[in-house]
Amino acid sequence: MRVTIKLFADFRQGRFASRVCEFVGKVSILRVVQELGIPLAEVGILICNGRHVDFDTELVEGDICSLFPKVGGG
Amino acid sequence: MRHSDTLLVAFLKAAAVEDDLIPLSAYEEAAQKFAVTFKEIETIVLENGLFPLRYLRQRKLLAIWGQQRLLQSRVAVIGCGGLGGSIVEMLVRLGVGNLLVVDPDFFVESNLNRQLLATTATLGRYKAEVASERCAIINPMVTLEALNQSFQSENGIQSLASCDLVFDALDSIPLRLELAEICSSLDLFLIHGAVAGWYGQTALVPPASGTMARIYQRTEPESQADGFEGSIGNLSPTVNVIAALQVAAGLSHLLDGEQKSSSAGCFVDLLIPELESWS
Questions:
Q1: Could you tell me the domains of chain A?
Q2: Which residue of B220, B227, B269 is in closest CB contact with A44?
Q3: What is the pLDDT of residues B199-219, one digit of tens each?
Q4: Could you report the predicted ipTM of this complex, rounded to two decimals?
Q5: Is the CB of A71 less than 8 angstroms away from the CB of B228?
């Protein structure tokens, strides 16, 4: 199964901006984040095909998934 | 219409410039002559097809009904630091009639790099109070209720209950989650905004949507985690871009008769720059 992963802001450092990733079997966004080596506590908004989703969302072939770092200042 | 109102309308029409524009000087004279408040005058101006001169440049964008809608709205700004100060400034200039500004803090020197209302003259003063003074010198048609205490206080929650819309301009994740809970219980829409360094985000948070909890999932409540902000700090351009996007979202929400039930938002990276929106 192939899904496009888009990374934003500091998540790109040492990784990539956008890449088509191949996975075998079911994969949740949580697993994608873990495989990329991004600490879960640093993850903020998760978007899948333009929709705001959470870590448990299962991805399907062709999904486009965007990961944004957590921001909380004002 | 009362007799005195008829006289007031006649006075305003006579004072109009370029057919139907009412200048501030006419408000000042009318307030004295007829013993009415600026807000009462503004209501009568708009009801009679006249238009306040101060809003000339937004007349085609809002029209009379839009300006009336804003005048009648009551909007809360929770937090009056970087985001909050700029949000208040824009709401006051747009002509939102009733503002509630809540912040228990006072200005300190390290606010000067980005907080609009922080000046060398306002250091040590309550932020909400300074907002109230700023409002008075820009737009006397706006009523600003300043609350120098936490939104979680009894006063804070009571004042929030009568609002049409709430802006999240806080600087801590645990507080944002609490504010979202309170807004859900009061059935209020919330416009979220947050910044860290060159990055920022906004979101329209409908009541009981769970959007805020989803944005900050995996945040340890005891960690005081505030994203990048604690480590990398805040910049004036980021704060102002995010405040502007929040106000634009709030404005379109107030003017839109049919309110959206789903959340929507965006993430901004000013360094590239790029904006990614979602719904």
A1: 2-69 (3.10.20.30)
A2: B227
A3: 999 999 999 999 999 999 987
A4: 0.95
A5: yes
